[in-house]
């Protein structure tokens, strides 16, 4: 089945270029030219990935991202012409999976799209009897590798696919420290090392959902100068 990409971009020339290149790669493309139209398309058209510009009329990309994340874990890549660090971090804090700064290489963008679509495409498996090998139990935390969900004290946590991938990678290799570079390569699955702050922000978001006291984590811990690990 074709994957559907929603492009939310107010500069029609850029939207047209993206539309052309995405269709050439075999994607179905929906374009929206302002934030309100983009939010509506995100909720109604059920895309497999959203390319979301930051500077949009009516609603900016941050507001769109924040609203989408209330009901959907669809992968979101932010497109921005800004270089300010705060803008990049804000997008990630609001739930974006990645960002890329204009002007961007189409080859680089397509590689990121493919990596994120693959990650977001893993379907929830049919309900079956679960064997122990499909469930990781760490006290009040249960990670179900078959249904791709995590629960704490019996309550399912609302994780994005990227957050699940991160906790799965760490928890299946507990008490091992992984550098941000290794996590970027194995969880984000890029052929190069992207912005390593993306790892830090995703860890922080995951701690806020997983830890009793995110400021003093006991599960996803930092080994200063080395990286992160999942403590068993």
What does this structure look like?
With 232 residues, the chain is of the alpha/beta class. The protein is globular. It is 38% helix and 20% strand. Helix 6 (161-171) crosses helix 7. The N and C termini lie far apart (40 Å). The strands form three sheets. The chain has a five-stranded parallel beta sheet, with helices on both faces.
Mean pLDDT across every amino acid position: 86
Low-confidence stretches: 122-131
- In the CATH hierarchy, what is the class of the largest domain? Alpha Beta
The biggest sheet, with number of strands, parallel, antiparallel or mixed sense and barrel status, is: 5 strands, parallel
How many extended strands? 11
Shape: globular
Q: What integer value in Å does the Rg equal?
A: 18 Å
Strand content is 15-25%
Number of domain units:
2
Helix content: 25-40%
Cross-sheet strand order for the largest sheet: 2-1-3-4-5
Number of helices: 8
Termini separation comes to 40 Å
Supply the helix-strand structural class.
alpha/beta
In CATH, the architecture of the largest domain is 3-Layer(aba) Sandwich
Q: What would the CATH topology of the largest domain be?
A: Rossmann fold
Q: What is the succession of H and E elements?
A: EHEHEHEHEHEEEEHHHEE
CATH superfamily of the largest domain: Response regulator
